[in-house]
Amino acid sequence: MNNMPKVKHIAIFEFKSSCTPQDREIFWKTIKDLPKQIPGILEFSSGPNISSEGLNQGFTNSFLMTFESEQARDNYLPHPIHQAAVEVVLPMLERIIIIDHAA
């Protein structure tokens, strides 16, 4: 293990209105399987927006991955399994924001 800071990888998104419950099931299975298939992902959490502040601007769901380092995140992005997942899930989304920060 190195002493580089961990990286929080945050995706905030809105499903397309045409996205069926079956599509959403495929989406979540695809995303939740990534930590089992790609090294360097330490934690994963996800779910629908439950904020009562009303500041979500139409974004309805999010997920958070914690990577062991920036290098682990950088290895994840072009990883063939991640790229295949992007091909599956991106067409289901109306909008997405992805940001990272050091933990």
Structure description:
The chain is an alpha+beta fold and 103 residues long. The protein has one domain: Alpha-Beta Plaits, CATH 3.30.70.100. Helix content is 33%, strand content 33%. It has three helices and four strands. The chain has a four-stranded antiparallel β-sheet. Helix 1 (21-37) runs antiparallel to helix 3. The chain is globular. The chain starts with 6 loop residues before the first strand and ends with a strand. The relative contact order is 0.33. The mean pLDDT is 96.
Taking all Cα atoms into account, the compactness measure Rg is 14 Å
- What best-fitting shape do the alpha-carbon axes yield? globular
Low-confidence stretches: none
Instruction: Kindly report how far apart the N and C termini lie.
Output: 15 Å
Strand content: 25-35%
Number of domains: 1
Main-sheet strand order equals 2-3-1-4
Query: What's the average pLDDT?
Result: 96
**Largest sheet descriptor:** 4 strands, antiparallel
Count the strands?
A: 4
If classified by CATH, what would the architecture be? Answer: 2-Layer Sandwich
Order of helices and strands: EHEEHHE
Per CATH, what is the topology? Answer: Alpha-Beta Plaits
Helix run count:
3
* Name of the CATH class: Alpha Beta
Percent of residues in helices comes to 25-40%
Structural class: alpha+beta
